[in-house]
Amino acid sequence: MPETPTTTRQPRVYTWSPQTWGPHHIPVPFAASWSGEHPDNDQLHVRTDHKGVPGLAFRDERPEDRDRHGVLWARMSWAPGTGKPQFAQMHPLRQRDAMLLKLCQVCGKPADRTREGWLFLEARGPHTAGLPDPGDPYQGFTPKPPVCSGCAILAARMCPHLGDPIAFRSRKPLIAGVFGGLYLPNRNGRVLALPKDDHLYYGRTNATRWFLASQLITELTKCTPATL
Fold this sequence. Notes:
By secondary structure, this protein is mostly beta strands. It has one domain. Helix content is about 10%, strand content about 35%. It contains two helices and 14 strands. The chain is globular, with a radius of gyration of 18 Å. About 30% of the residues are buried.
């Protein structure tokens, strides 16, 4: 079993053993959550700061619950390998640290980097039109951490969500914001979650104090196509 992070503040340092699942030992991404890991957000409430401004907070809030932009982060228990892998759902803490530390989202080890930048994979879509034409590089926003070259080949072959993916490198991936949910004050100090999740880009909105983040969003710039 992998060990938990060895420090108490972000970014954390990991001792991680790759996880597999099922009789065919399917690799489970480092950033994926497991059915045995559960959200732990029962302590959410309305708190007024020293300036008298209300906002979302945990009753037992710890310094590591907020990022350096003051955004509150969702809590989830830590039990990778317990239950079944949730391939379509990322663990907030592991996704966050994979983005911050440039870890491979599959194996948890350092992502592949060359002079052209860090390696990323994306499913094909309207936003990827033109690749692999070097004259029309991909540029956009993604919640998906980078990958190492070995795991990129593995993911392209085995991940049904990717289909026929494109690979590219970003020389300058910038942390741009978060994905998560917006809350509103309800009554008696309680809060109510809005039904639809959304993006919040740092410095572009005053909704920060009512937002609960679950994923980091990276803006990918200075991109060039890559081959696996």
